[in-house]
């Protein structure tokens, strides 16, 4: 994590002799690669070179050849074991003779890192002393079972800070950083400190060990006689010897020490002061796993749980857990919500009446007490029953609050054994809003129950059920609100994959989806502007934000968008939108929320992460809608968050997501806007925020958005302007500021 960031030349001297062996040599390579992580490798900062030595030194690469960390580490991987005797002294003399190959001629500090087992065939004391006399800092790193006495001779003083052990790569990398921090590198990060700690140096030594006494025969002074006696027998044995020592390392406060992750989330540190939370399912919408969902709407809410044999005991317990997680996430002190729970199999019962509990604790205890029954699946009968009896307790609260919308949430994973259509219609005729939650194979039946695909929520696997909590919250609160965002100011761009990977037939489906989505918006200069970009290997603007000013014109233009049929590059499409669509020149309006919806099969998203982040950094939201199989990691890098990723299993299912995506766009369109993001000023003008407005500071250009070049004859005027010119210039600037302010208020 920590890096030495200074101008310094680091030369690795890698032992490639037979005493090391091929296996330990590969470990040496891994270790040196690990040490590179502690170095900020850059042409103007740390440079790295490497020499392999055995019988003779061999230059693997000089310091000026590879100038990025990735290049250095890739080259280290390709180094081949050479073998030979361990001539460490000869390698040091080679460095004394030629210096640091490709180095900066002692104009920057020089660091030599020797990785060896310290079992040299010749003397190393004199060349090691001469190297250090040249003010070269020497680290000696032991590999395998080293001869520590020789490594101490090689290393700079104090030896305990310059002798490292490759067996513990992380600690050695930290030790290298810690020692360099005190001399050539920048100081440690705030809150960090270098401390010593006890450590061990291990080596194998051959020792003489008494094996025992055995009968032996000795001569005698008497002729023709021998004498029996006991003689000691010895054997040589290799013994692991541990030498107590002191090591140094830099210790920094952990950004997770404050336990920032809530609700059982796991904190994962990122660097010295950053972290991210791995949240349990259902809490992934917030960086701290906080249950920031809230219904923010008044409803009478009844959950209808399938308790039949079809869902199994495991499925019923999962529904209970989902119900508790949902209510924990959305119930607050001020949640204007009455909640009840019914369950059914052959029969229906309502163990928790709507409004029975006013506190979350009592409600959770009652949910825990629900038991699995395991009969038949009569969903139709259950719907009819709750339509008649599910909300009979709510009139008791009529004197406290107005009549609230009544919502039934059906959770089932088993096909009904009785008809559902008539019972569901009866329930809807009683002014009940029905929402269906089930696995994907239940979609058709749930849509028959709800009467609207928008009110159907399906999950792909048991774990995915908990990820549907935010979606259920939106569904419950949207039962009484109109679709779309007819009066919301918005600049919206669709990017449609028209590559061969999608194919003509599916491209037409995507185009139809865009067409249907546009019906949710009121398209004109003052409310919503829509642009369409189609892309393959290159991006093309089918029409810009300010091209069409009516819904009918936009719909006709969508039908004219052509299929391209080549390879896909989503990154190029997003860069095109950033530079050629979401700009003032192309009709984008400062002070208006901006959204990009990308429709793709997942192909060509590998280069999309950086351009998507560039759009987000400039206040432009990116939704990624993917149809079919795709790598989730790649999708999340492009979307930035699961909240902005919609993954659809097939093109046939696109129709079910149209309202959902329109809703999400409308929600985001209500968020506050930074008038200077993206920058409305053209030609490198600087956007300066004012109170409720902005102005553009231009250089060589003029106009409210720096759109007009200043003529050369103006620039040739005398640099000393009369007072009247200063006044006019000031008034002109105020007029620009005023016009921008008026424009913003009109939006």
Automatic annotation (TrEMBL):
PROSITE patterns: EGF_2, EGF_3, VWFA. Residues 253-290, 672-707 form the EGF-like domain. The keyword Transmembrane helix does not apply. Keywords: Disulfide bond, EGF-like domain, Repeat, Secreted, Signal. One of its GO terms (molecular function) is calcium ion binding. Residues 9-180, 300-476, 491-665 form the VWFA domain. PANTHER family: COLLAGEN ALPHA, VON WILLEBRAND FACTOR A DOMAIN-CONTAINING PROTEIN 2. This is von Willebrand factor A domain-containing protein 2.
